[in-house]
Amino acid sequence: MDVFQSLEQGDSVLDLSRLDLDSVDMDGVSEERRRETTRLYLASNRLAVLPDALCLFANLQVLDVSSNGLELICEDVTRLTKLKTLIAKNNRLDAQSLPKDFGCLQLEVLNLSGNRFEELPPQCLKLRRLRSLSVGGNRLRAIPAEIENLTSLELLYLGGNLISFIPPELANLPHLSYLGLCDNRIQSVPPQLTRLHSLRSLSLHNNLLTYLPREILSLVHLQELSLRGNPLVVRFVRDMTYDPPSLLELAGRSIKSRNLPYSPQDVPSHLVNYLDMASKCPNPKCAGVYFDSCVRHIKFVDFCGKYRLPLMHYLCSPECSSPCSSAPQSDVDSEDESSVPADRLQRVLLG
Fold first, then answer.
1. Strand (E) positions, the chain?
2. What is the CA radius of gyration of the chain?
3. Which residues are CB-contacts of 53 (< 8 A; sequence separation ≥ 6)?
4. CA gap 26, 39 in Å, rounded
5. For residue 85, what are the contacts with CB-CB under 8 A and spacing of at least 6?
6. Is there a contact between 17 and 64 (Cβ–Cβ < 8 Å)?
7. How many C-beta neighbours within 10 Å does residue 163 have?
8. Of 64, 124, 142, 247, which has the fewest beta carbons less than 10 angstroms from its beta carbon?
9. Which residues have C-beta within 8 Å of that of residue 335, sequence separation ≥ 6?
10. In b/e form, how buried is each residue of 14-36, taking b as 16+ CB within 10 angstroms?
11. Alpha helix (H) ranges present in the chain?
């Protein structure tokens, strides 16, 4: 049966999905129909290659070739100058599958999830108009620093890969509102992510996180934070790493805590610089300072009156930290719920 027989004239959608096709002969499509078609669906067939005449659909804006056996996106795709959305998920694409000039397309939505990419293709990092990029369920081991080039990006989904590190350059995406990094091997979140002022949803479940940076409280528009399946409150919560302070640090702490005056006339300039770098202990009940030696401590912050989130703090000494217990926590161990408005995080998913 001719798959084009039932197509009506004047329809901008050409849907050839789920027809068990292993090839498509576009000769059966009239020139007028090619000109009118803006959306072409070829999903869920058995196509090993894309049709030769694909480039003749000059006004094509949406192309869905998902769930085929594609190992290659042909060069003709780069001639689709009006193409805005390309969905090519669940195929067999890898780093060699995209045409050299793929980055010249004016794509706004690109979905390459469920393929065989081990790294983000450099061509994708040239798509400056891209608003949505999905490369989940691949074999990515890293997020390239060049991701910051995609300054129009609003959605980035990289879940289900092998990523262990979040580059700070990711924070240079001013319009990013959804970031999906679930089901990876991520162990920490860089504090620079607080520059993502548009971020509303952050998906980090099923990683290896043991804590979150305190700076995450600065994400004022964040409404959903997914953390289930991370160690977080396991044994790491009670761990403290503390190197005894050096004699230099002890002397510096004594000078700073007693507010003793100092100047280049009193001590060498390198010691003046050292003293100026003192960090104040965040414990409100402590007036101490620290330089290089500090206690890494997990502090619980209440969100929405329901969840306690472990955030990393640095204290001047073990005496500034009380052990976790079932008793009410001190000011050092927990912040009041009122310090974090409920509407700041509407959903914190730990379970």
1. 13-15, 39-41, 62-64, 85-87, 109-111, 132-134, 155-157, 178-180, 201-203, 212-213, 224-226, 279-280, 289-290, 295-303, 307-315, 334-335, 347-349
2. 27
3. 26, 27, 29, 34
4. 15
5. 61, 62, 63, 64, 107, 108, 109, 110
6. yes
7. 19
8. 247
9. 299, 300, 301, 302
10. bebbeeebeebebeebeeebbeb
11. 31-36, 247-257, 269-276
Rounded to whole angstroms, the Cα distance separating 219 from 207 reads 20
pLDDT, position 309: 66
Distance of CA 41 to the CA centre of its chain: 29
Rounded CA-CA distance 48/68 in Å is 7
Structure tokens at 193: 């992510």
Q: Across the chain, how many H-helices and E-strands are there?
A: 3, 17
Residue pLDDT tens, the chain, 351 long: 345 544 444 479 999 999 999 988 887 788 899 999 999 999 999 999 998 889 899 999 999 999 999 999 999 999 999 999 999 999 999 999 999 999 999 999 999 999 999 999 999 999 999 999 999 999 999 999 999 999 999 999 999 999 999 999 999 999 999 999 999 999 999 999 999 999 999 999 999 998 888 888 788 888 898 888 888 755 444 444 556 788 898 898 999 888 899 999 988 989 988 999 888 887 778 888 888 877 666 666 655 554 556 666 677 777 775 433 323 333 333 344 344 554 555 555 554
Q: Give the per-residue pLDDT at 337.
A: 37
Residue whose entry in the numeric block shows the structure tokens 């789920």: 18
* Both tokens assigned to 239: 């761990």
The two tokens of residue 97 are: 């599958």
Number of alpha carbons in the 13 Å side-chain half-sphere of residue 60: 27
Number of other CB atoms surrounding residue 246 within 10 Å: 12
